[in-house]
Amino acid sequence: MDPSGKDMVQAIQSDDFKFYESQVEIIKNCFTIQQPYHSDVNDLNAVSTNADQSHEQLVSIANVP
Questions:
Q1: pTM for this one?
Q2: Minimal CA–CA distance to 28: which of 55, 7, 1, 6?
Q3: Rounded to 5 degrees, what are φ and ψ at 51?
Q4: What are 48-60's pLDDT values in tens digits?
Q5: How many CB atoms are located within 10 Å of the residue 10 CB?
Q6: What is the span of the domain harbouring residue 52?
Q7: Alpha carbon of residue 36 to chain centroid
Q8: pLDDT beyond 80 at 25
Q9: Helices (DSSP H) in 1-65: which residue ranges?
Q10: Cα–Cα dist 44/28, whole Å
Q11: What's the number of domains the chain is made of?
């Protein structure tokens, strides 16, 4: 049985989401590593919070039927 177009789209979206999720983790890790050397830790916390929010938005987008 051939996969339907909808199945293929869902598979592609799932792969895309996993890719973006890994990018968010990499970005967050970079900021965590740089934090001790940064002059304004509050800026980094804001960036980290934005990364978390972006991650939550990606999760909600990925879960749309």
A1: 0.35
A2: 55
A3: -65, -40
A4: 555 566 556 666 6
A5: 14
A6: 5-62
A7: 23
A8: yes
A9: 5-34, 41-62
A10: 10
A11: 1
